Task: inverse folding
């Protein structure tokens, strides 16, 4: 309390206002904590007080009238809360379907994938299998890739394990070791790169940032041991670029959503972990994470404003960095590294030794394969600028090479959806005869599983039982939208949302009124209202959680091998932007007039 209660009571000459405020503060404390600040005797003394003058009576009556008016505010707020709560539960009959919508979607998408299984008879199945086998034999193996695989299998166990520590995909993905060879060639036995070599290196690395399939620049990926993101962060640091306010707001929303989701799922352990990882993360770590998350967007905005490209920015940044000994001090190439430590753990051998062993194994593998080709044991064909070892010669080869054994096994194995791994522009590999799972079953006249078949009946039954009641998906312009199943559902849903927003705005307005009463009565007159506002705030959070949950991409990669639709969108936002809801102006005006009629300028 702001007043010293003992001193006030001992003085005995309390003003009517002081007496009334003590009683109000006592009532509020009792309601909040169950304990009173006045003794029974003190309370009776204050209640039994009689005004001695008309002025004292008017003062007492003013605060009594104001308190009754505040009570009316509380009653009206309760009515608004009750109506808002009812709207919340009315809407939730529909909104709860949103919480399980990812379940519907995942299974309906899986059902669509089942429908894409090619229905064939036994003769067609044999023909398709044969054609796929012929295609694999026709493809053969790229000569350079064969050298890489053959070299890798001929390494000693220790060297092979060390290289896999450097790059866990090195056995089947040559890019990392190829990049390291490129860097070694650019150094050409010198201690530093020449100006020309730096330019070539910067061009190669910057070009790696472009994804030709997505047709856009991306900041993930790396050239040898240098992540593209590191170059982008270096540019940002040189420019003094830090996360934007909108990035912090997105971070707060994201972390809050994670915590709410964990709490709703009843996982205190996960919530505590998320709180430690995100909320309690040091500011420096938050800034670093936020910058990485938003850097591509920042770069794109910068290129538009400055009429440049991301590739040019990365290249120029890298050239400056190279002048500051980037490949000497920070990202030492393998051929020149005496280190053993890596991000994934320590190697047993120094990196320069591993690189030498790799080059020796690769030279030996190339020489061996070239001799076999010269003898005619293996045959090659020219494919554009590359050379390919033919599949027929690989399949007929009698030697005990692991990479050739793997090739033979792949040729003899029918690979369902094999065509999906081929490049989009390789039209020869994308027909129905190559890239589909096969179902040998009874067909109808349209070539689909007959409804009387076990497979056909099962599909129909599953599809019928998986249909949502209130929502549906529509496809337009290559996007998939979540929409209401009917106009009546849309009207009921949007009406309830509007009423919840209106109720929240009115409760905020009542709070603005009671904040002024807090000052007048020197007490927390709005403590009960705060609870109601908190509950409606949770209603809104629940609503937003339901909507966001429905739009969540459970597959994690959107289209997913061409079998799954894109992540859901909505044509109009279904979220309630709680932070943008302002106190209801008419409610404030109405009640402010009532209170000014009691308190005049004091209110």
Result:
């Amino acid at each position: 309390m702001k007043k010293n209660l003992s001193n006030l009571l001992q003085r005995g000459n309390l003003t009517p206002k002081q007496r009334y405020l003590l009683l109000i503060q006592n009532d509020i404390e009792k309601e909040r904590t169950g304990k009173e600040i006045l003794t029974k005797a003190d309370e009776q003394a204050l209640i039994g007080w009689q005004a001695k003058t008309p002025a004292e009576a008017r003062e007492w009556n003013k605060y009594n009238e104001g308190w009754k008016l505040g009570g009316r505010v509380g009653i009206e707020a309760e009515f608004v809360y009750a109506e808002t709560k009812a709207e919340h539960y009315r809407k939730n009959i529909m909104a709860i379907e949103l919480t399980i919508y990812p379940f519907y979607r995942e299974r309906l998408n899986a059902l669509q994938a089942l429908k894409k299984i090619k229905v064939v008879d036994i003769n067609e199945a044999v023909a398709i299998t044969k054609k796929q086998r012929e295609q694999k034999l026709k493809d053969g193996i790229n000569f350079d890739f064969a050298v890489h695989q053959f070299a890798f299998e001929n390494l000693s166990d220790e060297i092979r394990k060390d290289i896999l520590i450097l790059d866990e995909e090195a056995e089947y993905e040559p890019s990392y070791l190829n990049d390291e060879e490129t860097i070694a060639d650019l150094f050409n036995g010198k201690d530093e790169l020449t100006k020309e070599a730096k330019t070539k290196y910067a061009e190669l690395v910057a070009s790696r940032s472009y994804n030709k399939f997505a047709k856009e620049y991306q900041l993930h990926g790396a050239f040898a041991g240098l992540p593209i993101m590191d170059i982008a962060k270096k540019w940002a640091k040189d420019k003094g670029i830090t996360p934007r306010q909108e990035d912090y707001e997105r971070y707060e929303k994201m972390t809050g959503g994670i915590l709410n989701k964990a709490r709703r799922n009843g996982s205190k352990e996960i919530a505590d972990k998320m709180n430690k990882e995100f909320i309690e993360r040091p500011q420096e770590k938050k800034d670093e994470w936020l910058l990485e998350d938003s850097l591509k967007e920042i770069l794109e905005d910068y290129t538009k404003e400055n009429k440049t490209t991301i590739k040019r920015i990365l290249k120029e940044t890298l050239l400056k960095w190279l002048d500051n000994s980037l490949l000497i001090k920070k990202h030492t190439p393998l051929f020149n590294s005496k280190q053993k430590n890596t991000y994934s753990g320590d190697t047993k051998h120094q990196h320069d030794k591993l690189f030498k062993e790799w080059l020796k194994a690769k030279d030996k593998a190339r020489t061996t394969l070239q001799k076999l080709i010269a003898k005619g044991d293996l045959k090659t064909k020219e494919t554009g600028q590359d050379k390919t070892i033919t599949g027929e010669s690989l399949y007929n080869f009698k030697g005990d090479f692991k990479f050739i054994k793997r090739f033979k096994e792949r040729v003899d194995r029918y690979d369902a959806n094999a065509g999906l791994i081929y490049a989009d522009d390789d039209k020869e590999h994308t027909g129905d005869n190559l890239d589909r799972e096969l179902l040998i079953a009874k067909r109808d006249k349209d070539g689909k599983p007959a409804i009387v078949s076990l497979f056909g009946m099962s599909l129909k039954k599953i599809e019928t039982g998986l249909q949502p009641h209130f929502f549906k998906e529509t496809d337009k312009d290559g996007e998939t939208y979540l929409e209401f199943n009917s106009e009546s559902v849309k009207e009921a849903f949007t009406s309830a949302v509007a009423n919840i927003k209106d109720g929240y705005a009115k409760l905020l307005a009542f709070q603005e009124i009671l904040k002024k009463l807090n000052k007048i009565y020197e007490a927390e007159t709005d403590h009960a209202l705060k609870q109601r506002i908190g509950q409606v705030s949770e209603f809104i959070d629940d609503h937003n959680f339901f909507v966001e949950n429905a739009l969540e991409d459970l597959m994690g990669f959107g289209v997913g091998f061409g079998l799954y639709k894109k992540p859901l969108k909505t044509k109009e936002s279904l979220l309630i932007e709680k932070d943008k809801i302002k106190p209801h102006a008419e409610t404030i005006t109405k009640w402010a007039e009532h209170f000014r009629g009691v308190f005049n300028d004091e209110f």
User: Anything to note?
Assistant: The longest strand covers residues 471-476. The two ends are 21 Å apart (CA to CA).
